[in-house]
Amino acid sequence: MSGAARRKAAVQAPLRVLAVASEGFPFIKTGGLADVVGALPAALAPEGIAVTTMLPGYPAVMAALGPIQASATLPDLFGAPARLVRAQAAGRDVIAIDAPHLFARPGSPYLAPGGTDWPDNALRFAALGRAAAHAAAHMGFDAVHAHDWQAGLAPAYLRFAGSRIPTLFTIHNLAFQGQFPAGTFGMLGLPAEAFATDGVEYFGGVGYLKSGVWFADRVSTVSPGYAAEIRTPQWGMGLDGLLRSRGAAFGGILNGLDTVEWDPATDTHLPARFDATSRAARAANKAELQSRMGLDVLPDAPLFAFVGRLAWQKGVDLILEALPAILDNGAQLAILGTGERELEQRVRGATDTQIGRVGSFIGFDEGFARLCYGGADSILMPSRFEPCGLGQLCALRYGAPPVVARVGGLADTVIDANEMAIAAGAGTGLNFAPVSQEMLASAIERAIALYRDPPAWQRLQANAMASDVSWKRSAGKYAAQFRGMIADRG
Ligand code: ADP
Fold first, then answer.
1. Which residue, 76, 127, 310, 436, is the most exposed by fewest CB within 10 angstroms?
2. pLDDT of residue 6
3. Helix, coil or strand: residue 271
4. With contact defined as beta carbons under 8 Å apart, do 342 and 325 qualify?
5. Which residues touch 277 (CB under 8 Å, ≥6 apart)?
6. CATH class assigned to 279-466
């Protein structure tokens, strides 16, 4: 959108979009979904889109709400009454689902204290969809933006309520599908006809993500690369046929970063703040990171870090297998993450046997993550698949040229620093394919060689920090989706 057109759109009454999600920064976060949900309201405002974010009323969400501006009551939301409470919170317009029987539980939004899914997750997130349909119809919205499987029933509830409000459904990760047994269907309050292939039925059960893909007016995912991949049987996880059948109603819109929230010049989690012209200050962050990770504090040792879920998807096992490429070349590794028990144990094992050279922290810690981005020399993301990935965007912004697998959104956002790209001033990190331990090891060795050539590394770091990782590219694309689907409904 041109500047003039944007100003015009902003003076017109903004479109009112209800975003529906199971997590959102700064209230509750387990991964990139929260970052995106937290960033879109500010990113879309200049496009004339006013976003209100509906979140389950977890304790952290309820505690953040300002004075109540509006409310609605649902007399029976799966077993007890619930209130939809609208208020400002952390600069955002929020509707919280105040339903203590479903959401007044501490800790993870999805997991009980033992680490397994809450047994009533099917109902907890059906409640999110139902509450969204109610709010859309009764609290004044022009369109709904439903995120991931947890919000996948919202378009179904809207459709069967006869609503004319259109929905955009965004897939942040096709690997999480919200698949529940057929017996769940009877509890959802949807008409019998909804339990069909042309409906919420999926491989004999109820598929929440499938419901979103099926019923939404438009479907998006978080990068063009991933959109192409999941149209294929190899990466479509059973849904490629349905995604292909959506034709032009399905596409990829690249995620961005909230560049105010993620700014190394103002980030209070960094002992030394810096910008592109004062990158040398990163040295103090590196020393702090080395010390907090139990690494030898060596200013000249290339320091690689991994920040993320310890899961097969993220290829953390490949990093452990490629360790010799790091250690034999005098480099160090820091891992911050939480996830699968077996991977956590393997990370702890590597830390215990490579004292001072491999460090780790098993847990989720926002400030520590930012210290990794602002202190490590390079961030490793050898994901086997990656819908978009936010870690590499943080790494670019914080001057830690990332080493990434050439898949999905990683391929869309990191330009490989091969000789030509360096000469052209274009490389921003290192890419490798296919995703294997050997190829990761050789990319790490390439990164170390570049690091030991200071002028080349300086150029790479400068290019990384100059990359546009903001929402500017994509905000207009979301706005076009909302306007287009409203126009389609006439
Ligand atoms: P995911 O597939 O988990 O959503 P993304 O790369 O899209 O992966 O986003 C991950 C987000 O979560 C980033 O903001 C990253 O910094 C953050 N994150 C992941 N693991 C941790 C952790 N253990 N502690 C703090 N932040 C984390």
1. 76
2. 54
3. coil
4. no
5. none
6. alpha beta
Ligand 1 atom showing the smallest separation from residue 314 Cα: 2
Q: How many CB atoms lie within 10 A of CB 490?
A: 5
Helix (H) / strand (E) element for 403: namely: strand 403-405
Ligand 1 close to Cβ of residue 307 (< 6 A): yes
Please state, in angstroms and rounded to a whole number, the distance separating the CA atoms of residues 348 and 181: 36
Q: Given strand 358-362, what is the order of strands in its sheet?
A: 358-362, 332-339, 303-310, 378-381, 403-405, 430-432
Read off the pLDDT of residues 124-148 as tens digits, 9 standing for 90 and up.
999 999 999 999 999 999 999 999 9
Pocket of ligand 1 contains residue 367 by CB under 6 Å: no
CA proximity to 267, closest of 360, 373, 377? 373
Query: Is residue 88 lining ligand 1, measured as CB closer than 6 Å?
Result: no
Domain ranges in the chain with CATH number 3.40.50.2000: 3-256+472-489, 279-466
Which pLDDT value is given to residue 4?
A: 55
Per the CB < 8 A criterion, the answer to whether 39 and 19 are in contact is no
Using an 8 Å Cβ cutoff, are 371 and 288 in contact?
Answer: yes
pTM for the whole thing?
0.96
CA 276: distance to chain centroid? Answer: 25
| Ligand 1: residue whose CA is nearest its atom 26 | 366
Q: Rounded to an integer, what distance in angstroms lies between the CA atom of residue 57 and that of residue 69? A: 16
- Which numeric CATH code is attached to 3-256+472-489? 3.40.50.2000
Rounded distance, CA 390 to CA 44, Å?
A: 18
Q: DSSP secondary structure string, 195-263?
A: SSTTTTEETTEEEHHHHHHHHSSEEEES-HHHHHHTTSTTTSTT-HHHHHHTGGGEEE------TTTS-
Q: Which are the contacts of 240, defined by CB distance < 8 A and separation ≥ 6?
A: 230, 231, 232, 233
Cis peptide before 434 (omega within 30 of 0): yes
Beta carbons within 10 angstroms of residue 223's beta carbon? 25
For residue 402 and ligand 1, the question of a CB distance below 6 A is answered with no
- Mean pLDDT over 87-107 rounds to 97
pLDDT at 10 over 70: no
**Residue linked to tokens 């190899």:** 234
Residue 5 has pLDDT above 90, yes or no: no
Predicted pLDDT of residue 11: 54
What's the whole-number mean pLDDT along residues 340-345? 97
Indicate whether residue 390 lines ligand 1 (CB < 6 A): yes
Phi first, then psi: what are they for 212, rounded to 5°? -60, -45
